Amino acid sequence: MLEVSGLTLARGSYQEELNFNLNHSAIVWLRGNNGAGKTTLLLTLMGFEPPRSGQIFCNNLRVDSRKPRKTAQNFSYLPQKPSFQFSMKVKRVCEVVELNLANPYAVTLGIPHLIDRDTAELSGGESQRLMLAIALNKKSDFRFLDEPLASQDDAYMEVIKELFNEEKKRGRALLISSHIAINADSIIDLE
């Protein structure tokens, strides 16, 4: 379980205290205006940004921005705008991150069709799906997904939303920042 108490963010326009628990087998929709602090909240919860105040515990371990490695294995993260630092073939990316192309995430998200493409040639939606497959493939209890539906066509939006439900059935907790409505067990509003 992720427990958040008295949390205020160091950056973003949202200034209220946040108090919530994120349980396993749950989908929580994080919504708010641009600049409210959604991405900052996700980074703070993983220990990569210090909070202004408050406490975060993940599986009874305090999340500390000075020691993010201590709790990092509990989280998988999809950045809002995935970018690859080096140009390389998608097949090589999958080898480096140990994402088997027969993996259900890779297949469902259409990654095998991209294997011979260079990461610099991918569209925004293709990059997002590749990074989503990588994030979902990680063995972690908590999935923090920042705008996973961005740049997707309607068909892939439905595929991705179904993946969210499957992850929930597997006992994963998903905290999803999205401007697009999703079916969620609860909502955290940063408005």
Write the layout of secondary structure elements.
Blueprint lengths: L1 E7 L9 E5 L3 E6 L6 H9 L6 E6 L2 E2 L6 H4 L2 E4 L11 H7 L7 H5 L15 H14 L4 E5 L7 H16 L3 E5 L8 E4 L2
Parallel strand pairs: 3-8, 3-9, 6-7, 7-8
Antiparallel strand pairs: 1-2, 1-4, 4-5
Provide a descriptive summary of the structure in words:
The structure is a single chain. The chain has 191 residues and is of the alpha/beta class. Helix content is 29%, strand content 23%. The chain is built from six helices and nine strands; from the N terminus they run βββαββαβαααβαββ. The strands form two sheets. Strands 6-7-8-3-9 form a five-stranded parallel sheet, with helices on both faces. Strands 2-1-4-5 form a four-stranded antiparallel sheet, with no helix packed on it. Helix 6 (154-169) links the parallel strand 7 and strand 8 (173-177). The longest helix is centred in the last third of the chain and has 16 residues, at 154-169. The protein starts with a strand and ends with a strand.
Short description:
The protein is built from 6 helices and 9 strands.
Note the main attributes of this structure.
single chain; 191 residues; 5-stranded parallel sheet; globular
